[in-house]
UniProtKB/TrEMBL annotation:
Keywords: Chaperone, Disulfide bond, Membrane, Mitochondrion, Mitochondrion inner membrane, Protein transport, Translocation, Transport. The keyword RNA-binding does not apply. It holds the Pfam family zf-Tim10_DDP. One of its GO terms (cellular component) is mitochondrial inner membrane. Gene3D superfamilies: Mitochondrial import inner membrane translocase subunit tim13 like domains. It is a peripheral membrane protein. The twin CX3C motif contains 4 conserved Cys residues that form 2 disulfide bonds in the mitochondrial intermembrane space. This is Mitochondrial import inner membrane translocase subunit. It comes from the Eukaryota. Belongs to the small Tim family. Heterohexamer. One of its GO terms (biological process) is protein transport. Mitochondrial intermembrane chaperone that participates in the import and insertion of some multi-pass transmembrane proteins into the mitochondrial inner membrane. Also required for the transfer of beta-barrel precursors from the TOM complex to the sorting and assembly machinery (SAM complex) of the outer membrane. Acts as a chaperone-like protein that protects the hydrophobic precursors from aggregation and guide them through the mitochondrial intermembrane space.
Amino acid sequence: MDAAALNDPRFKALVEEERTKALANEFVAKMTDVCWDKCITGSIGSSFSRSEASCLSNCAKRYAELKMLTMQKLTSGR
């Protein structure tokens, strides 16, 4: 790939899109690890218990809110 191709706006947009996808995947993986460890206490069956499902939902919401708050604080400090 030559230097001109690296400066192509379409290439830059594609790289940014892939970066965004990677960050989203990383976020979901981390949230899954954190919430799974916090909420799943019994053996794995065909479905979650009511308390496990509620815990997973609440944990995911809190994790997402905290991540957004953290990002806002980091970007406002620039």
